[in-house]
Fold this sequence. Notes:
The complex is a heterodimer. Chain A is α+β, with helices and mostly antiparallel strands. In chain A, about 20% of the residues lie in helices and about 20% in strands. Chain B has helices spanning about 10-30, 35-40, 55-80, 85-100, 160-170, and strands at about 110-115, 115-125, 125-135, 140-145, 150-155. Classes of the chains: A alpha+beta, B alpha+beta. At the A-B interface, α2 of A face β1, β3, β4 and β5 of B.
Amino acid sequence: MRFPRTLLKRNRTEIRISLYATKSQVFIRFKPEIQWTPGEDIPRYDQIRTENQSCNWDLLSIPIWVRFDDSKNYKDDYAVVGIFLAHLLKKESNEGNYFWKIEHKPLDNNYSHCDLSIDGSQIPKSVKRQMKLELKHSQVIHFKPYEKPDFLYSLKERFFLKFRKIQYYFNKSN
Amino acid sequence: MTPALNHPDLHGLSQTLSNFTKSHKKLETIVDPDQGNNFLKKNSTSTYKYKPASIQERNDAISFSESKQKIAEFKRAFLERNDDIGIKCKNSAIHIYSDLIENKLIPIRVSIIEDNSLCLTLAKSNVKVYLEIYDDGSMGFIAENVSAKEIIDNRDVESRPELIDYLRRYLK
Lengths: 174, 172
């Protein structure tokens, strides 16, 4: 797969995600054998991070692009998982209200790059465990390792991406 | 005395060997399985107590050596190679792992997670338990129903017996 030029940061600045409706999704990749074992759930609980979990934002990326690494190499052996922000931002714990915080942190070769972390300090360990497992339960698998997109996939997803951008700028202007 | 041991320097050694052989023969007589029980009955004050091992005991001995092997593998694979994991975490992990093996709760995976902690995954049919051992030696677990995608239990535990009780509840 060719590296999409729209992923390049160029001179663009970061966007405040809170401005955007929580209908959007983030995409996370998981490496097989290390971060995912055949026959088991994706993602594995022990591979979910509560701090600085890298992901791609669906306002600026389609799911399959998360397979591109920092050097623009396409890694077809990675599983691609999607998580809806609505599932993350509204989670509440029995021990208080803790939320996942998502920050847009563009990289030179990945403008859609975001960091996902639990908001706050001194977060109880039981809360971290609960939020990790809830994140695991809320995921949608887009691609299993080595699964290839079909012929129309990129075309279709690029169309949806344009639509999401229009929707975003429309919401922002209102 | 054997010709090879006729040398004067080896005389003492040959004497020792000869004594050892005699005592060893005595020992063999004592530990003859057919006479063992009778011997014990007659010589209850003897320091050498022989009792033929039952099949159960032999099996226990094998599983004990297997569990020792598993613990050694665990030490070698996860604790000795990873300097990032703190001493408290390592000590806790060894004790917990030993307890798990003793209770036949075999982790399907051990992995290093964020904050230099360890995560032991245990599974039984539809239930998965993720046991986390933290850098300060403390521990906690979360149990899920895999197919229903539900959290069954999530708690910090103070002691190893308490932890084993909970794990047995969810995994037996």
